[in-house]
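<backbone_tokenisation>
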Amino acid sequence: MILNDLLVHIYLLIANALELPIRGVNLPRHFILAYEDEFSTDPQNRDVLFYINPFSQGSVFSKQEIEYFLKQIKVPNRPHYFNACNNYDIVLRVLNNLFYSYFRMGMEHKTNQIKDL
């Protein structure tokens, strides 16, 4: 899981360096990327042209496939699952993933450090 987070962040850093309109999307049990319409009239609320799954060799998919994924995992369809999240949400997700990874390994000292953060 930690390696997956690292992969997504590297993808985001490269996209940012290339000035591509790619941002993170905080799905339950999965973190994906959204390629946003850079010509949107509202830069704070851009339309998503397509989604990218960095864990599946960068496969590209649509909103309908996210709807199908949510149905498969029995999670209600919520609008924020289709839009980019902010940096705070990304950091919080990474910290939660680290916490649970350390917890499963029995590393109580590390879990306490993550809690403090």
Notes: The mean pLDDT is 87. The radius of gyration is 15 Å. Residues 87-104 form the longest helix (18 residues). The helical segments are 2-17, 63-72, 87-104, 108-116.
